[in-house]
Structures are given as C-alpha cells and as structure tokens.
Amino acid sequence: MEMDERKTKILQAIIRNYLETGEPVGSRTISKYTDLNLSSATIRNEMADLEEMGYIIQPHTSAGRIPSDKGYRFYVDTLMEAKEREVADMKDMLLERQDKLEDMLKTVVKYLAKDTQYATMITAPTTHLNKLKFIQLSRVDAGHLLAVVVIEGNMIRNRMIDVAEEIDDETMLKLNMLLNTQLNGLAIEQINLSMVAKLKQQAGIHSGVIGDVIDEVIETLSEDKDLEVYTSGANNIFKYPELADNENASRLISAFEEKEILGDIIQPGEGSDETGIQVYIGGENKNSGMQDCSVVTATYDLGDGMKGTIGIVGPRRMDYDKVVGTLKSIKTKLDDLYRKE
Q1: 3-state class of 293 per DSSP?
Q2: Which terminal residue of the chain has fewer beta carbons within 10 Å of its beta carbon, N or C?
Q3: Nearby residues of 167 by Cβ (< 8 Å), 6 or more positions away
C-alpha cells in the first residue's frame, strides 16, 4: 500500500486530534476534522490500512486509534518539510520584493527631483506595530534549537536558542503548536506576564525553552531596523540664490549626507491632513539646517503596517500647489504598484 494524499490527511487529522485531547480517535471524529467529505465507513477502511502500515495503533479493542512512533515521524517530517518550504519561499519572495521596491524607490526619488527641480528624498518602508505571523522551532543539534520568527510584513529573523537536553520530535511538534496557537497575530504589547506564565505551565518541564523563545520573539518585535533613505537632486539647491550662498549650501548638503538628519527632517508628525501631506515652512522645520527652506512630506502605506515617507526640499517660494499635487499622485501610484506585485 502507498501513502496517498487521502491517507496522509486522515493520519494528520488523527495526530492533531490526539495531540489536543490525549484520547484515542475514532472514524466519526475524523470525519469532522478532514476536508475529504468521506463517510465513517470509508475512513474506517483507510484507518485499517494505516494501522496495517504501522502508522497508527489500536490501544484497546473497540477503541479509537492513536499515532505510532512511525506515524509521528511521518507527521513531523511532512510538517517540517512544509514549514521549511514555506519559510524558504517567503525568504525568496521577500528578497525579490525588497530588490524591486528598492529599485522603485530610487526611480521615484529621481523622477521627483527632475519633475520639481527641488531636492528630494524617500525612506524605505518600516513596519509599525509589529505582529507575529508564526514561529518555527527546529533542532540544530543536541544543545541548540533554531527559532525562525516571521513578523508582519513577512520579515524573517533567525534566533539560536540553547537547550539543556535534546528535544525529541514529538515534543518539538507540541512546542511549535503551543507557541503558534497562543502567540500568532499578537503585537508586543499583547504578550503579557500572565500569558507567558500560562505558556510555561503548559510546556511543563520545557518551560525554560518557552521562556527563551518568547524572549527572542519580544526582542525581534522590538528591534528597530536602520532607516534607509534615498535622495536625489541635492544640486538643485544651487539653482535658488537664497539657498546657494556658501553657508546655507554647506548646511543643506551636509544634512543630505546624514541618514539620521534626513530621517528627522521627514519623520511624520502631528498636523498632517487625511492624505498624509505635511508642509513645514522655514522655522517650522525640525532641523536647524533647513530653517531657510520649506519641506513638504507625504506618508505612503504599503499595507501590513509598512509605511515610509517622501520628502521634497526647496526654497520658501517653492511651487506648493505643484509639489502637493505631485506627492499625492506619487503616493497613490506607489501604493498601487507595490500591492499588485
């Protein structure tokens, strides 16, 4: 007999139900847990085959079935293979989208500089209010686990965790299920001491592993990625006499060379309208190097909490009408282009 798709789904349903309840599983229960729409009689026949193949056993006469070691092994290998494929695909997709996004942002900032004849900048999107998508624990060796933490925006972090003793496949599976059932979809603010205590209690003798994993999850959700800023058109500043004298030009060019300063200049603040457009004139600018300029910014939103800012820097006498209209248009196009990917 071969392990076909139907048998695989029935075995997976038996194991999931047994992990949840600890009780032998019957055909009637399985008929509710699968998407095969099979009768109890058909499921009984498949379970008989699975038992003959050694994947499940019947602990008592007339009782349901429970997984054998061979069944657990098949389930864990299949699950881990699927998760590894999912993580690998996600990494590939993320790298591809990051490359495309970087190229697109560089194109946008160059276009804006050419179209407006002002200095322009754009920040790569950062994730706000990170939420956990899923965790995958896997064994590296007897003393180490690898925790793959995937957060909102499909950002992936790998964390190595020390363990006092080797963890078997069944325990690993239970820890993965426990963590993902309780933590998926939560932001850092929602992971409280009561929840951590409950998880540790459910993990029993492996509470230390759970504590270490949660520490890594919180660190991952909390970490700030360095701000990436792309600029273009800094030389356009010299086209305006009021900005072109040595002192002003030197301050402005210096500002354009410092990522932290640029981030402060176009960081979204209070007072933006419903489109995310903000205008800072002269002394309203946060950076002293921009006191003789006007800065207009727009926040773009790519979904999944991924947001960035576009900024245009020019003289106080800039063409505000054109700049605001251009930013609104670019902001909309940027959102649409990315979401179609």
Answers
A1: strand
A2: N
A3: 139, 145, 175, 206, 209
